[in-house]
Specification:
Layout (H helix, E strand, L loop, with lengths): L1 H11 L5 E9 L4 E3 H11 L6 H12 L5 E3 L4 H6 L11 H27 L8 E6 L8 H9 L6 E6 L5 H15 L4 E8 L13 H9 L3 E9 L9 E10 L7 E6 L2 E6 L3 H17 L15 E4 L4 H11 L7 H10 L6 H16 L6 E8 L3 E9 L8
Helix pairs in contact: 2-3, 3-8, 5-6, 9-10, 11-12
The protein binds malonyl-coenzyme A.
Malonyl-coenzyme A binds next to α3, α8, α9, α10 and β12.
């Protein structure tokens, strides 16, 4: 009897590690250059009189790091919903109504790209892991996404809500577990983040709004994950090991809360320092059990997909670990071209990374790491092994 159970268990599980099989990304149609954003933001929110806040946003935007961001909230939307500008007005219903339509639509654009690259029918997807901070309704945007993609009615859905910028990292970790524990499973990870849930005009005493206006953009990313690739599937990165670490006593450092006026968030100015103080320990804990990287001397031997939460986060990590300038190149490029798109950002970084690796060819690093940071402060870490396949141009 015990043997039979053991055999069933073995037959149910995959033989190999889960792998990233395809990646897709998408953004809203409207983009904004950082140089032009301050004037635009203060004009459309009718806040020109708040000159000290305008100067503050200008100072933040002057920092090299982000050049362009994509946004769902347009002048037309603000003309139709002027209440969105005032955080004290009860606009949550209107925001959730808009997000319920737009979040799955953007996710579907990214997911279609991933599915087309994967090369199999959408109905072969067995599991969906969906992450967003821009929702507030059940059934959630994942069900709408499943319907837009024509996924099978037996697809197993999991929703991560308000995981913030670590949502993409967590979703990938869940996908790995699902793929390795269910033989033949093909997991679609989708993260779709729209700032419309938290878009406000500037207000005295709300510096978070100004910092957020300087950093955050809209985007969606999707990844197909599966183990034991079959013919025509082309693994990009094998998922070797994962950890989640919460930095003690940092519950108040990054927070989000739905209120009648939308999503209120707080980002402590201590976040870059707190991450820098903890990151090396987390990396050692992730790599040492594998025997891949014995000590910090080898950090430059890895490829890196770090969530670019802000330029100073990347600068601190680069300096602390003594990384060569190009090591965080994919993270910096995504930050430059799209800003911080919360949970979706690491998917954009992986997409950029695979393009860069294709150019590097045989010299590209074999082992690498994905790190995403969110409320907690939570650090999601995944050790990756490059499939030889990802050295080919797509
Ligand atoms: C915002 C920055 C790009 C600005 O960089 P600068 O080089 O211009 O210089 P700086 O750091 O001195 O900041 C410029 C001005 O902004 C202020 N400032 C900076 N960070 C702030 C914060 N979190 N809250 C309030 N004010 C802040 C500074 O005090 C300063 O004010 P003054 O000019 O008056 O002196 C950088 O500080 C940065 O990258 N910070 C990290 C952002 C971050 O934590 N991202 C994680 C987001 S959360 C995330 O990714 C996960 C999630 O959401 O779940």
């Amino acid at each position: 009897m015990a043997t039979a159970l053991q055999e069933i268990r073995q037959a149910q599980r995959a033989d190999g590690h889960a792998a990233v099989l395809a990646i897709g990304t998408a953004n809203p149609a409207t983009s904004m250059l950082q140089d032009e954003y301050t004037d635009y933001y203060f004009r459309v929110t009718k806040s020109e009189h708040l000159t000290h806040l305008k100067h503050k946003l200008k100072r933040i935007l002057r920092t090299p790091g982000i050049e362009k961001r994509f946004m769902h909230v347009s002048e037309e939307i603000l003309d139709a919903h002027p209440d969105l500008i005032d955080r004290t007005l009860p606009t949550l219903d209107a925001r959730i109504d808009m997000a319920s339509a737009a979040v799955p639509k953007l996710a579907a654009s990214a997911a279609w790209k991933a599915i087309v690259e994967w090369g199999r029918p959408a109905t072969d997807i067995t599991h969906l892991v969906f992450s967003t901070y821009s929702g507030g309704r059940a059934p959630s945007a994942d069900l709408r996404l499943a319907s837009l993609l024509g996924l099978r009615p037996t697809v197993c859905r999991t929703v991560l809500n308000l995981n913030g910028c670590s949502g993409g990292g967590r979703a990938l970790q869940i996908a790995k577990e699902l793929a390795e524990n269910n033989r033949g499973a093909r997991v679609l990870v989708a993260c779709s983040e729209l700032t419309l849930i938290a878009f406000y005009g500037p207000q005295d005493g709300c510096l978070d709004t100004i910092v957020g206006q300087g950093l955050f953009g809209d985007g969606a990313g999707a990844i197909v994950v599966g183990a034991d690739p079959v013919e025509d599937e082309r693994p990009l990165f094998e998922m070797a090991f994962t950890t989640q670490t919460t930095i003690p006593e940092t519950e108040d450092a990054i927070t989000m809360q739905l209120r009648k006026g939308g999503l209120d968030f707080h980002i402590s100015s201590q976040v870059p320092r707190l991450l820098a103080e903890n990151i090396e320990r987390v990396l050692i804990d992730a790599f040492e059990p594998l025997g891949v990287v014995a000590n910090g001397a080898a950090w430059n031997d890895l490829f890196w997909a770090i969530h670019p939460g802000g330029r100073s986060i990347l600068d601190n990590i680069e300096e602390l670990l003594g990384l060569d300038a190009e090591k965080l190149g994919a993270s910096r490029q995504v930050l430059r071209d799209f800003g911080n798109m919360s949970g979706a950002t690491v998917i954009f970084v992986l997409d950029e990374l695979r393009r860069r690796r294709a150019k590097e060819g045989e010299t590209a690093a074999e082992w690498g790491v994905v790190m995403a940071f969110g409320p907690g402060i939570t650090i999601e870490t995944m050790v990756l092994h490059a499939a030889t396949n990802n050295l080919k141009e797509n």
